Every structure is written in C-alpha cells, then in structure tokens.
Amino acid sequence: MSDGRLGFWGAVSIGLGGMIGGGVFSVLGVVAVVAGTASWLAFTQRDHEAVNPVVPAVGVVGVLTFAPLLLARLYTEQQAVFWSVLALSTAVVAAELLYFERERIADEAEAFEVDVEGALFD
C-alpha cells in the first residue's frame, strides 16, 4: 500500500470487519432493548464454567489496541475518509437512539397532547 491505494486484502478486511463489528453492535443493541437492565445480569451472571474468559479478553485488547491506530492512520493519511467515518458513525448512533426511544417519544407526545387539550377545554 505504498502508493496510497487500497489493495484487495485491505478491502476484504474492511468489509469483513464492518460486517462482524456491525453484527456485534446490532446484537448488543437488540439485547439491551429486549432485556433492558436485565442485560447487565445476562452478561455478568452467566455460567462461568462454560465460558472461557480468554477469548473475550483477547477481543477487547484487540479492539482497544487497533481502533485508535486505525483512527490515527485515517486522520493523518486519509482525512476525508476519517471525517466520513466520523459523520456516518454519528448518524448511525443518532438513528439508533431515536429508533429505540420512539415508543417513549410517542408516549410523551401523547401525554403532551392530553395536557394541551385539557388546558384548552378546561
């Protein structure tokens, strides 16, 4: 990659990393929505004998090591890509937050309508 182009294996790695990472975060989001605060119990109170803690620990170390390196490289060598990734990530997080909060927003809007109607007609 000395000429600044993305090679075949680099593109494959980015594609696989995006699919796997997206899947992991999607599943965690669904678990948090479905189980709510019980999701913390699901992760902390699972059967400790059946789960080998080394594999998740290696994954965490890998993410904590390579995510900053990737972002630093993008920022220094490909700023347009860095800002695109940052903007897209921000948009995805905002969309997810709005999506998972839509029932609460609808409930609050309905309560507001009732308050307004009560104030107008009382």
What can you see in these coordinates?
Helix content is 83%, strand content 0%. The chain is mainly α. The chain folds into 2 domains: 1-51; 53-122, no CATH class. The model has no long low-confidence stretch (mean pLDDT 75).
Gyration radius over CA: 21 Å
What is the rounded distance between the termini? Answer: 72 Å
Spans with pLDDT under 50 lasting ≥5 residues? none
Strand content: under 5%
Individual helix count: 5
Counting helices, strands and paired strands, the structural category is: mainly alpha
Q: Characterize the overall form.
A: flat
Helix amount? over 70%
Order of helices and strands: HHHHH
Secondary structure tally: strands: 0
Features:
5 helices; mainly alpha; 122 residues
